[in-house]
Structures are given as structure tokens and as C-alpha cells.
Amino acid sequence: MNAAPGPRPRPDASMTLLNEVMKRPLDPGYAAAARRRAERRAAGESTEPRVPAHVVAMLVAVGLGMIVTVAVLHLRAPQPAATQARSLLADQVVERSLQIESLTDRSVALAAAVDELENAGTLPSSLREANDRDKLTNGTTAVSGPGLVVTLTDGGLADDEGDQRVWDTDLQFVVNALWASGAEAIAVGGERLTAVSAIRSAGDAILVDLQPLNGPSYRVEAIGDPEKLQVEFARSSGPAYLQVLGTQGIESGVQSAEELLLPAGRPQTLRWAAQPGPGSGGPEPGDEESGGPEPGGAEPDGTRNESPAGSRSPGTDPDDPDDTAQQDDTAKDGA
Predict the structure, then answer these.
(1) Global pTM?
(2) 251 SS3 class
(3) What are phi and psi of 226, to 5 degrees?
(4) What are the distances in angstroms from CA 152 to CA 76, 170, 194, 239?
(5) Is 140 in contact with 194 (CB distance < 8 Å)?
(6) pLDDT tens digits, 151-197
(7) Do 173 and 240 contact (CB within 8 A), yes or no?
(8) Where are the domains of the chain?
(9) Exposed, middle or buried, 314 (CB in 10 Å: 0-12/13-18/19+)?
(10) CA atoms within 13 A on the CB side of 286
(11) Is the peptide bond before 283 cis (omega within 30 degrees of 0)?
(12) 145-264+310-333 has CATH 3.30.70.1880 classification
């Protein structure tokens, strides 16, 4: 015996939610609130909120502003430990700077005393002449004479573009070109180059023997035969390199000078080199068959290897190991 069938479901049973939305779009809570307002209005009571909405918004804005202000002041307030460390570092920088100035003055005074003793006639004339030649070669004595001046100036189109600033490698290239052109003494930004001088960078600053140069214009002075320097420099790759710099907004200039005065270089401290004693197997002083290059990277003919350094160098291949090694050697020599 089959059970009696139950009532059939309504065809629109699956649309109950849609029917509720269409028939009663307002939430029952809103309807109740509207009904209460209507009752208060009918009873003669005020239906306005106790606190106006704009007052509430103003209070909220003031509260948020105070919270943000307190947070910013808390973050910007210097921490005692950081302030103390910064003050200590500043004091150390000032102290070390004073020590450097004092030692530099003492070094100059001692050098002057040594010169007085040498000029007093206590040394044979041959030794004095050799000593004078060594000082000229090493750059430890001031020199004067005619020569050539090359200037490089940062571009002023965009301060944040590194290609429009003069790099240390640019000065290295110019210095090497001048050495190869026959320069006898060179100074960069008033700093005399010696056999162990280095031109390098620290951030955006260019250093010569750890002394920062003041930009945006950099002056390279070379003493030598002006006519020979101009001719040989024009034959070198220096002018082409300066043209490359010009396309990047860096201004350059080359001019001869009738009289240049280059200061003495800083005293050199030899930590590993020493004069060989008798029987040590090393070359004796005056031995002309050593066959090696002269001090400071000079070739036997008195010129220096001209090896462009830096990505601006024309005619170098970064994939060529020989060119890369040559650039590394130039960057280490600094001149």
C-alpha cells in the first residue's frame, strides 16, 4: 500500500530571498527606528540627535590629528644613545683633524731642517745633485716652469645623473695621457702626484692621496715643454676622450701656461722597500742594466703607459682580459 503523496513544493520556493528583497527592501531595524521617530514627532518630542553629526566628525578628526602628531614626534625625537654616538664621532673627527694638521706642520718643519742641513755643505756635491734629482722625480719638492693645463667641469643639466659628473677615472685618463705626452711633473687640484699617488673616489667625492678635491671644476697642471706637450697630447687619445665627455655634458679645456708652480708632494713612507746591502744579490745603485721600468710606472724613455680607465674609455673592450687588466693597473696606480 503506497503512502499518500505530500504537498507539492511551491514553484517559487527557491526565490524566497529575492521575494523578501523585493517586498521588504528596508531592514526591520530601520523601519522600527522610523516608527519611533514618527511616534516622538506625534507626541511633540524632538527627533534631532543629542550631538550634531558635524560635532562628532570634528571630535574624531581632532583625535586622529593628535594621535598622528604624537606618533610623529615620538619617531623624530632623537634617541639618547644615537645622539651620544653622533657627538662622540664628531669629537673624534675634530680631534683627528687637529692631529693631522699638527703632524703635517711638523713634517714640513722637519723637511725644511733637512734641506738646511743638506745645503750647509755637509754632503758631497754629487750626492746633493742625486738627491735633488730624486726629489724632482719623486715629486717631494716644489717645481715651477711652463706647461699645459687641462680643466674638466661637471655638467649642470641634471645633478642626479652620474654621467654628467667628472669621475676619478676621467682624471686618471687625462693624467696618463699627459705623462705619455712628456710631462715632467703633474698636480691635480693642487695635489702633487708622486710615485705612489692614487686617484680614486669615495662616494661622489674624488680623492687624490686621500685628499678630497673641490668640484665642480677640476684642474690638471703638467709641467714640461709646452709645444711638445700640446703636440703629443693632440696625437694621443686624450682629445677624443674629452670629446666623449663633451657629449655627456662635461666641459673641458686645454691651454698652455707660461709659468706653473706645483707644490711638493706629501712625504712618502716606505714600509717594505729598503736599500739592498752588499752581497744581497740586488742591483747596486747606479747599475744601468736593471732593465726594469723607472719608479712610478714610467717606461725607460720617461713616459708612462697610457691605459684608459673607466667605462668612458674609447678603444677598450671590457671582454678582453688584456684591456681589463690594463684598466685595473691604471686604477691602482692612480696616475
Answers:
(1) 0.51
(2) strand
(3) -60, -45
(4) 41, 9, 21, 12
(5) yes
(6) 999 887 545 555 688 999 999 999 999 999 999 999 999 999 988 88
(7) no
(8) 98-138, 145-264+310-333
(9) exposed
(10) 3
(11) no
(12) yes
